[in-house]
Design a protein that fits this description.
The protein has a 6-stranded parallel beta sheet with strand order 1-2-3-4-5-6. Helices cover 29% and strands 22% of the residues. It is globular and about 50 Å long. The chain has a single domain, classed as Leucine-rich repeat, LRR (right-handed beta-alpha superhelix) (Alpha-Beta Horseshoe), CATH 3.80.10. By secondary structure, it is α/β, with parallel strands linked by helices. It contains 5 helices and 6 strands. Helix 5 (138-147) links the parallel strand 5 and strand 6 (156-159). The termini are far apart.
Length: 160
Amino acid sequence: MMRNFLSGIANVKDMTISSSTLEIIYDYSRCEPLPLFSNLSSLRVEFHDYSWEMLPMFLESCPNLKYLVVGSTRYLDRKRIDILSRPRCLLSSLKYVKIARPLKGEPKEMKLVSYLLENSKILKKLTLCFDGSMKKEESVTFRELLTIPRLSTSCQVVVL
């Protein structure tokens, strides 16, 4: 059933997906390879917790993705396996990323930002929204952002 569902949506151009659906897709990918989402150019992922470490697995199946928005609806603290530590693939078509979820500068958040900056060949703009309570830690977080290597030499990081 999952194979038929994924094959049925493999040609979409724009997609919004929840973290719970992404988790089901991840579980499926451990048994069967995911189809390529060759037409997908715009993706919005709504996370309900910090489960975004599954995101790179899905991005590997999106060779022509240009726009990525990472959003959230609420904060929960659930433990997840750390998929961001697996071998990384180059995100060769990704141009614009916005992490709309208010970031607090936590290690998992910075790992996602690092993953995107270090693996996106033609990334032009990464927009980050920070939590208002971070003011005391701003300088540490900004210094950390400045030290993250970028694969794209023309990438602009915008902090809101």
